[in-house]
From TrEMBL:
Residues the record marks as active site: E46 (proton donor)
Official protein name in the record: Riboflavin biosynthesis protein RibD
Species this chain originates from: Litorivita pollutaquae
Pathway stated in the Swiss-Prot or TrEMBL entry: Cofactor biosynthesis; riboflavin biosynthesis; 5-amino-6-(D-ribitylamino)uracil from GTP: step 2/4; Cofactor biosynthesis; riboflavin biosynthesis; 5-amino-6-(D-ribitylamino)uracil from GTP: step 3/4
CMP/dCMP-type deaminase domain sequence ranges: 1-109
Cofactor binding description: Binds 1 zinc ion.
Record flagged with keyword Oxidoreductase: yes
Binding locations of Zn(2+): H44, C69, C78
Chain sites annotated for binding NADP(+): A148, W164, T190, D194, G290, G291, A292, L293, A294, A295, S296
Name of the gene this protein is made from: ribD
UniProt binding sites for substrate: S162, R178, L198, R201, E288
Amino acid sequence: MALALSLGRRGQGATWPNPAVGCVIVKNGRIVGRGWTAAGGRPHAEPIALAQAGTAARGATAYVTLEPCSHHGKTPPCCDALIAAGIARVVAPLEDVDARVSGQGFAMLRAAGIEVTTGILTSEAARDHAGFFMAREQGRPLVTLKLASSFDGRIATASGESQWITGPEARRLVHLQRAAHDAVMVGGGTARADDPSLTVRGLGIAQQPVRVVVSRRLDLPLLSTLARTAKEVPVWLIHGPDADPALREAWAGIGATLIEVRADGRMLDAGDILAKLGDAGLTRVFCEGGGALAASLLGADLVDQLIGFTAGLALGAEGRPSLSAMGIERLADAPRFKLCEARTVGNDLLHIWRRAEL
């Protein structure tokens, strides 16, 4: 099952709106087939592994990281494929939360005489599928907030210089993290200041995340890197009701997708942003700031995982903080996360924090 989970993670960021599932088929103590959900969400992991196993699948055990699907969608049910192949036993950590499947896949397998075992590495599988589960149950994607800052929590000098606070090893790891998410999201201020490309580079990975920019008024440079490449890699612009119609038309004309959300005072409504992204099929979003967007998501209790890269330099109070004001007066009101990992990456410190329930 640990191998199946590791295979499933290879699909993270490429399978939305479907879950990233892994499958390993074992017979007589030997692996005869393996697979993971393909880019775009199909084929599913099970038929890929079954095709590799061929006739050796008869009487074998299939380790699958999520309950096999039992409904007809754009592909036939994976349960049908497992039954037809003569699989004798299916091992899966937990049920699918999708109402079209939930429990029905296991029932279908048992009715066909296949032994079903559940509860293996359940917490690990639940974490891997957390984005898919959130999209189905809460209507929003899982949000990872990444902050790269100085020792004293600054993301730039007073003049705005920010490249580079962290070293090349940390930046390479960020590209890997981008690749494991459906979308990379930044605020309009970051897009204007840094002219980012928000793509995965230097890793030989062709699949690119959707690039999301949150800008209430759409006051973004039309000669930016994002604008020039909007027809090559998707750019989604989240804007408010008061965005200039001429700017909407201009961005749509160069290939961007525009998504209007509610305004909450001077800011866009963070909950509505994520709801609209969930409606569009996203399950995992990697937010890279800036400070206003990050503070808005944290203040609305919509951040599920924090990834911090801390560099060994100090920029002082005049430097730009990693978070904008959040209006917190009591420690009890501050969002808290549990530390899950801490290690060095090059000359920087990586620390990962998650919600208690993840």
